[in-house]
Amino acid sequence: MEDAVYREFLELEADHWWFQGRRTLFISLLDRFMGRQAGGPRLLMDLGCGVGGMLGPMAEYGKVIGTDVTWQGLKHCAERGFPRLLASHGTHGPLRDNSLDCITAFDALEHIEDDVGSMAEIYRMLKPGGVFIASGPAYQFLFAQQDRITHHFRRYTLGEMTGKARSVGFGIEKASYINFWLFPLILPVVLLFKLVQAVSQPSDDTAGSNVGVGIPGWVNACLAAIFKSEAAVLRVASVPAGHSLIMVARKPAEG
Q: Counting Cβ atoms within 10 Å, is residue 14 exposed (0-12), middle (13-18) or buried (19+)?
């Protein structure tokens, strides 16, 4: 991504409704499939850690390594005091076989051209029984200027993401669309933006993302509460449509 987008995400991640909501959902999944063990011997890696928004929360589950392909993201992580950082391309894992208890790729795989190759590397680095948690944008027909600005190669359906994970050996333990309550509102807005962009033919793919569009504080709080409430639903069910998706996969245990 462009450095302007990294800076924007750094500024917004604490309070913006989208960051609040996804963080709540991801922590809920970590609680369910990992369990908290701050300072314990377990080793986790956040692939595509960006500016480090999940590195702090993930420290509640063990020691955390942040990896990213860009120096901009890692620079922001280092400035925030996160000590374990590695520059790594998604298809060339930096650690040895069977060395990690959990790998997360929160909105990261869509940035990697060979996402299946990246999943194979994730599988290689995970210990038997290790957990892989991924999220990503949903539905290719929604691919728009925001995806180009943030250097996405694709958007996913659940079948596509889980099928790719299964193809490298993973078993799927949870898969669902997320940001589903707001999807009926988001869908027409995105399609309208796509229409406007098609007519105006924008050429600047280095502009800031639309995440930073200003909204009143009370609206932001309402949207955050709605998005966060999805965590309770996901504990008991999976949802067939949404603006994004999540997947929890596991490397089979030996024996």
A: exposed
Query: What's CA 98's distance to the chain center, in Å?
Result: 23
Is CATH 3.20.20.370 correct for 3-250?
no
Question: How many angstroms separate the CA atoms of 117 and 94, rounded?
Answer: 14
For residue 204, the model assigns a pLDDT of: 55
Low-confidence ranges of the chain (pLDDT < 70): 1-2, 201-213, 255
pLDDT for residue 211: 63
CA triple 249-43-76, angle to 5 deg: 95
Domain borders along the chain are 3-250
Instruction: Identify the burial level of 37 via C-beta atoms within 10 angstroms of its C-beta, where 0-12 means exposed, 13-18 middle and 19 or more buried.
Output: middle
Tokens of 213: 């569009």
Q: What is the 3-state secondary structure (H, E, C) of 185-246?
A: HHHHHHHHHHHHHHHHCCCCCCCCCHHHCCCCHHHHHHHHHHHHCHHHHHCCCCCCCCCEEE
